[in-house]
Amino acid sequence: MTRHPKKKEQEKKSTPEDSNVKDLPPNEPIETQTEGITKNPIGTLFWMRIGLGVLAGIISALVGNPIDANSRPYVGFGIMIILFIVSYGIAKVMRIPLPASDKKKLITTGIGSYFFIFIFVWILVNTLMHPAVTGLPVR
Questions:
Q1: Range of the domain at 104
Q2: Which phi and psi (to 5°) does residue 11 adopt?
């Protein structure tokens, strides 16, 4: 069996000059938040789906308003599914470099957030459009 040297032994062998070099800041520039967003296409896809979830909720509330109450859920969820398929098409156009085993990431990234944001915005817009139904006075 080969014994590896302990880290303490390596630190003792280093000269005091080496410890001063460690205190210096790195020469590489620090990334800003906006650079990180553009360099992470999966993050861009996630936030795009959040935005499309908001858009789908607003469209579903506005389009479903004049429609019969029994068919509103079908119209709303249909709009949600159509916009999700559009987001998948946009993700394919973005050409996100993924290994073959992770191709389903284009579908699964942000799907839960998309759905829950859609439901939240749909309910919120319907509540704001019909305040008399809630029984709360609107000032």
A1: 53-129
A2: -70, -35
**Which of helix, strand or coil describes residue 63?**
helix
Residue 81 lies in a domain: yes
Sign of CA dihedral 52, 53, 58, 62: positive
Residue with tokens 């998309």: 114
- For the chain, what is the domain count? 1
Q: Say whether 26 sits in a helix, a strand or coil.
A: coil
Domain-located, residue 68: yes
The 3-state secondary structure of 66-131, one letter per residue: CCCCCCHHHHHHHHHHHHHHHHHHHHHHHCCCCCHHHCCHHHHCCHHHHHHHHHHHHHHHHHHHCH
* pLDDT tens-place string over residues 39-82: 788 888 899 999 999 999 999 999 988 888 788 889 999 999 99
